[in-house]
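ok new one. same drill as before - structure tokens go in, u give me an amino acid for every spot. 319 of them this time. try not to just spam alanines like last time pls lmao
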């Protein structure tokens, strides 16, 4: 079996996106079906950039589950590690964007949390150069055990582990439990991407430079705190700093963080050396590529359809 640049693990679900601009969920007239799930977006993003990516997760053995697999297949993602539940329906999320820009979510949890440790083969994990996970799959059993089991096994097989908490508070019964799981992920991962809010929540520091210090762990190779249009604050084994964002006309920020991760993992692979051996200039170039990937995703609606190609990134970076 072919090696995978990135194997993404976690939720793949239907986002029903409000068709009513500025309305909350209750005030929305209708909802448009779109593929969703942060790890799945990253898998599609890596493939769009020409990398080999795979997805492992559980959907229902139902029309939505088959639709979702078809979307990832169409993007060139290896979906052979996916499982289909005969007892749970595909998970759904209803999403609206209010006038203040805040998104409102209502989740109907199903098959995504049914992923079991034994659904993830050692053979699949051995193919992965990078295993990328988020925290949604940590919020319910058996998917929590499946996620941590995959992280431990992939690490023992020599993969780099990438973690983006992507916290969705309504999916947790207890936010203290969410924090413990995210901090456990931070202890195990080699590359971590967090948003500003997550960095503050996990570290307890308002100041992001202090947060980056507090979140650093001995096994980490790179920590990225994404700052929206301001770019990214980073720390890696060879230094720390801020790489400014690229100015674009943003219309929908859905998937920007996932595109950033896809861009960063792709650029780090292109760099041709382990993260800890990169010169500061090489690390910053990879982060700039990731910023461009995130920025371009905000210029088009949706997540997967908005993911950029290498040519678009090159054009933005040379503009
Ligand atoms: P998340 O979606 O995880 O909260 P951010 O909103 O910080 O993450 O976006 C991730 C990355 O995408 C940022 O670090 C930046 O590089 C890029 N990005 C996001 N929004 C914009 C924007 N309005 N203009 C330019 N770049 C953006």
């Amino acid at each position: 079996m072919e090696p995978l640049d990135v194997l993404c693990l976690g939720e793949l679900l239907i986002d029903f996106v409000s068709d009513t601009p500025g309305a909350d969920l209750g005030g929305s007239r209708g909802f448009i079906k779109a593929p969703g799930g942060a790890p799945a977006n990253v898998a599609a993003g890596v493939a769009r950039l020409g990398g080999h990516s795979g997805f492992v997760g559980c959907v229902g053995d139902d029309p939505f589950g088959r639709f979702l697999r078809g979307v990832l297949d169409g993007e060139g993602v290896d979906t052979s590690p996916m499982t289909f539940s005969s007892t749970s329906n595909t998970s759904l999320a209803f999403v609206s964007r209010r006038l203040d820009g805040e998104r409102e979510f209502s989740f109907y949890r199903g098959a995504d949390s049914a992923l079991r440790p034994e659904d993830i083969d050692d053979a699949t994990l051995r193919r992965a150069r990078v295993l990328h996970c988020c925290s949604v799959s940590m919020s319910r059993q058996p998917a929590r055990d499946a996620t941590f089991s995959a992280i431990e096994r992939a690490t023992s097989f020599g993969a780099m582990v990438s973690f983006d908490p992507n916290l969705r508070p309504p999916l947790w019964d207890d936010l203290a439990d969410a924090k413990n799981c995210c901090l456990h992920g931070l202890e195990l991962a080699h590359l971590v991407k967090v948003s500003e809010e997550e960095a503050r929540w996990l570290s307890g520091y308002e100041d992001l430079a202090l947060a980056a210090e507090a979140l650093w762990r001995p096994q980490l190779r790179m920590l990225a705190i994404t700052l929206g249009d301001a770019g990214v604050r980073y720390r890696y084994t060879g230094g720390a700093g801020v790489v400014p964002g690229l100015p674009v006309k943003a219309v929908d920020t859905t998937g920007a963080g996932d595109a950033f991760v896809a861009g960063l993992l792709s650029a780090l692979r292109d760099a041709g050396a382990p993260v800890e051996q990169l010169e500061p200039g090489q690390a910053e170039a990879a982060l700039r590529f990731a910023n461009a990937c995130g920025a371009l995703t905000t210029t088009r609606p949706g997540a997967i359809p908005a993911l950029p190609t290498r040519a678009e990134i090159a054009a933005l970076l040379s503009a």
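The chain has ten helices and 14 strands. and btw The CA atoms of residues 44 and 75 lie 6 Å apart.
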